[in-house]
Amino acid sequence: MATEVRATPQQSDGQSREVLLDVRDLVMFFPLTRGIILQRRVGWVQAVDHISFQVYKGETLGLVGESGCGKSTTGRAILQLYKPTSGEVIFKGTDLTKLSPGEMRKMRRYLQMIFQDPYASLNPRMTVGSIISEPMQIHNLVPKNQRNERVQELLETVGLNPYFANRYPHEFSGGQRQRIGIARALAADPEFIVADEPVSALDVSIQAQIINLLEELQEQFKLTYLFIAHDLSVVRHISDRVAVMYLGKIVELADRNSLYDDPLHPYTKALLSAVPIPDPVVEKKRERIILTGDVPSPINPPSGCRFHTRCPYAMDICSKVEPRFVDQGGGHYVACHLYPGCTP
Amino acid sequence: MADVPGRSPATAATIRGAAAPELSRVALTRPRSYLRQSWDRFKRDRFALAALAVTVVIMLFSYGAPLISEFITHKSYSDQSLLRGLRPPFTDGYILGSDNLGRDILTRLAYGGRVSMTVALLAVASALAIGLPLGAIAGFYGRWIDSVIMRFVDIMLSIPGLFLLIFINTLFQVGWLGLSLVIASLSWMGLARLVRGEVLSLKHRDFIEAARVNGASDFRIIFLHMVPNVTPIIIVWATLAVPVFIIVEATLSFLGLGVRIPTPSWGNMLNEAQQFIARSWWLAFIPGFMIYITVLAINILGNGLRDALDPRLSE
């Protein structure tokens, strides 16, 4: 069902930027099984279907989409929390999908994750200190007698009191817990962090603090983020480039400004038109594109372009042929038959 | 600000300078260990503390049975005196009276406690040793491993225990050790199911994924992250199992399958007493009361332990 034509985003702006993470043709299907001992496969949940993108060193790549579109799955498949069905995830020249579990464990110190739910992501029976020092223990990074000091240092770095090391997660608020989660992610000195909706469980006022902290840390430790979110304004604020996912596919990938100012894909246009603008005059004039229907099931996705069932501009070809993911100039990639080069 | 050598210094001052001006490195008191903190929480629960004391006294009494026989009652548990049967407490030198064969009840109670407690505790320990790893492995690895283990559990559950015990007994002479193993092998399934269910729900919690992201091995994840979160249900299960096992042992002894007379156990003392209950109430009351107190104390103790091991309950 998947066609072999898949464009890998290439550098087109002339600048030489170092590619830190190169995702090629990543596929993540989950089997649907039936039966007790002899399990028959009755289908696949096609959560992520042949996606390719690159993340440059030091940048933040935003990944947006509705819930269920596969953005979290993409993040987890990159970190090999799920074994990808096929495709390559090349991190600094190493294909993570081909590493043995032991080799992958050693690699993990460079790839970290910040979780969505700060209440679920910290072990309730461990102190903050042991939570943060666990990566150091596992990778044997800091001499034992200095780990305490390093934990305190990290707590300060994320804006918490170093005294908190002896406390338990339940004693903290959501925002504080998220800071603890960030400190844990930093403990192993990573280069790449997948932030899986790191602020969507937080109050708006706390969201800004956490976002600013993430930005400060990025600058200080030269981090690279894959920032997964469904909040378009948050993504706009933090991202350098943004990828839009729909039903397991990346439909558009561009520079933040060109994506927000000049979205190409009808789905992106609809998404952006749903963001309210805090100005009644503009708000009155602007046009909302309202999508009809629901997101189709990823078990049985629509043929051709997956968006054709809801697309206001759908043509005959859309239901038959899958559009290619093509650069429309300046690194603005889109997969839609409305644009030149996308129809194979 | 002391920098850790060889690392990029996370200089908090540059980031949080305005917000936290004087966060110099504090000399942390050595963090109290998890068990130490649990003990501190446990101490605050007076009921649990009392239950612990009672349990310890019962244990000392039971395991000190030879000493009691030697220095207090001056009788062995099988010394008979048919002329002095069924004496009430505090008569003829019988502190807790005598049974129909004139055996000293206090001595038999201590020896019986030793048998009952040993069988129950050993059975709990063996059931834990089987049920905990099997349940954890089934829940953690899932797929066919889970299917195989859980179908085996179903098969074991469908075996009628009593008939199996009778069968085993006709083939082998089962002592207290064999008895505990048989009880354990017939009762680990419930625990395995409990643990599997708990592990299944823990498996997809973010903190387990976080441990994985940090490079933790399966072993580390199971024993450092999952088992501490499964301990409350294990403790509850164990404290409920001890009394059940004491009673199972009593039942089996009654059927002639467990501990055989003249070796006393609380169960067979109770059962022997039933013919005389109208005349000599203490024969049934004393071992019955011991079972009751033991069961109650262990239950309260288990409750206190479960709370003490939960850091969320310290204020």
From TrEMBL, chain A:
It comes from the Bacteria. Pfam families: ABC_tran (PF00005), oligo_HPY (PF08352). PROSITE patterns: ABC_TRANSPORTER_1 (PS00211), ABC_TRANSPORTER_2 (PS50893). GO terms for molecular function: ATP binding; ATP hydrolysis activity. GO terms for biological process: peptide transport; transmembrane transport. Belongs to the ABC transporter superfamily. This is Dipeptide ABC transporter ATP-binding protein.
From TrEMBL, chain B:
It comes from the Bacteria. GO terms for biological process: transmembrane transport. InterPro entries: BP-dependent_transpt_permease (IPR050366), MetI-like (IPR000515), MetI-like_sf (IPR035906), OppC_N (IPR025966). Residues 113-302 form the ABC transmembrane type-1 domain. The chain crosses the membrane at residues 47-68, 119-141, 234-261, 281-302. Belongs to the binding-protein-dependent transport system permease family. PANTHER family: D,D-DIPEPTIDE TRANSPORT SYSTEM PERMEASE PROTEIN DDPC-RELATED, OLIGOPEPTIDE TRANSPORT SYSTEM PERMEASE PROTEIN APPC. It is found in: Cell membrane. This is ABC transporter permease. GO terms for cellular component: plasma membrane. It is a multi-pass membrane protein. The keyword Transmembrane applies. Keywords: Cell membrane, Membrane, Transmembrane, Transmembrane helix, Transport. Gene3D superfamilies: MetI-like.
